[in-house]
Amino acid sequence: MTRLYVAAGGGGDALAAAIIHAATSSEPAYIATFAWDRLLIDPLPGPRSARDFTGLHRLGEHVTAITPDTRPIPPAGSTLPRLAAEINATLVLLDPTNGATGLRAQLRDLAALLAVPRAEVIDVGGDALAHGDEPGLRSPLADALALSACHDLGIPVGVLIAGPGLDGEIPEPDVLARVGNTMAARLHQADADRYAHVFDWHPSEATALLAAAARGARGTAEVRDSGLPVTLTDHSPNAYRLTLAQALSINTPARAIQHTTSLDQAEEITRTLCGFSEIDYERAKATRNRPATHTTITEDLDRKARAYERDAAARGIDFLTFRRLAEVLGLSATVTGHLRTHLIATRPAHYLPPIWATRPLH
Length: 362
Known about the structure:
This protein is of the alpha/beta class. It contains 14 helices and 16 strands. The chain has helices at about 10-25, 80-85, 100-115, 140-150, 170-180, 190-195, 205-215, 245-250, 250-255, 265-275, 280-290, 300-315, 320-330, 335-345; strands at about 5, 30-35, 55, 55-60, 65, 70, 90-95, 120-125, 155-160, 185, 220-225, 230, 240-245, 320, 350, 355.
């Protein structure tokens, strides 16, 4: 029996879906996902549409798959073609051009094509359960679109919230209060190890923290360009299940955009309800982004990384994501990969895959 997953937020949730699927099932899997990467990867704000790619494989009238041969059309960037090559699942592009209505048509087409009995929405962190007014909320639109698109698919839809609070948007206690006593799975080191190699290049922070928690990491991690502190606890490797109806009853923006027919319309409704959308943030950040300050790994860059590491440790930070280091040091995606390799090779005692400890672990 084929499994159908809907990655609520994009590439990071798609990777999480692959990890959770491998941990819980041996059946074939399809993962429907937005092509929505951080500016470190894709300099264009917002999600990519089918028009932004070459080499998509058509599966149905409204459905296209991302293959290892798919390529984003420059200047767009995407992690999805490489992810398609490295996970044991088929990635399907969610194109939000026509709003929740268009996404629903895509998912209905896909569900009918696969003849699946149910679908699961996967969200790492829990912002899929946002009311819309949380102080730490950063990305309401993507999750609202994914939930809304799953309404009225004609099959039961569950919502899996993995790693409560790990995206730094809604605190873990609030997420746990919303999911209730509904734990569906717990990830372990073997589950994290299965796709450990993907984190060598994939920039996801929340899913990286989920994998680290499955390996036993506990403490405070610093993430994103703003340096949000996120706590890894004994709840962090867990996934909790709700019904779609339960999730929609919590997520006000998702209910409000159910009948939207364009991305702009969905964004405007979300902006009105939440005061912003994540595309607004990306637009603003794209205009102020500075060129990378380093193009190679130098002694100066190593000193700066060590200095920031010591400063973070003095502030009570136990772990840093590599994306956080990249943001602090002004690195391109390529140089971030080189720095990661350099740090692991020179000071392996700080590495708890796939994140970096501010103090030696052994």
